[in-house]
Amino acid sequence: MKKSQRVEAFVGILGSGEKAAEQGFDACYLGYFECFNEGLYYEAHDVLENLWLKEGPGAPDYRFHKGLIQLAGGFVHLKLQYVHPTHPKHGRRLDPARRLFLLAAGNLSPYGPWHHGMEVGAPVALAVKTAALIGEGVSSRNPWDPGKLPRLTLPVMPR
Q: Could you tell me if residue 24 is left (phi over 0), alpha (psi between -120 and 50 degrees) or otherwise beta?
């Protein structure tokens, strides 16, 4: 089974398909928010990447989806570093996470203030704030806390 088929099956399990059809969004787009808000950042990344790859580089939402994928990717790094701070690979994930958050903010910013039912300022602010909390170099610290997961508001189709 191809990765895209596995992701589509996973999205079906999430229940995003029914909501997506009802609200006019792609199920992978809504699935991203469901996964992200549960702290399943790797899954959020994969789900939205599936849509992003289908649409391709010429799509009007290419950078928007890329920014959301980068946001989830940054949290993948923080979560792994939090769980395994002394691991040779995972212990060095703060700088890559910071870079991803800054890239995410840059890719999302042009789409504001509202895009696809979401206030774009929220993920941009989350990315910028998290990058600042990480800091740089020797003073880097992991701000991720499993008891205080960041949340993104699920998109709503305007009535």
A: left
The answer, yes or no, to whether the previous bond of 88 is cis (omega within 30 of 0) is no
Strands (E), 21-139: 114-115, 118-119
Q: pTM value?
A: 0.90
Q: Which two tokens stand for residue 154?
A: 């699920």
**37/152 Cα distance (integer angstroms):** 6
Residue 34: in which H helix or E strand, if any?
A: helix 27-37
pLDDT digits (tens, 9 = 90+) for 32-62: 999 999 999 999 999 999 999 999 999 999 9
Q: Do residues 140 and 114 make contact, with C-beta atoms less than 8 angstroms apart?
A: no
Arithmetic mean of pLDDT, 115-138: 92
What is the distance between the alpha carbons of residues 68 and 30, in angstroms, rounded to a whole number?
12
How is residue 110 annotated by DSSP?
G
Q: Using an 8 Å Cβ cutoff, are 78 and 68 in contact? A: no
Domains of the chain: 3-139 (1.10.3450)
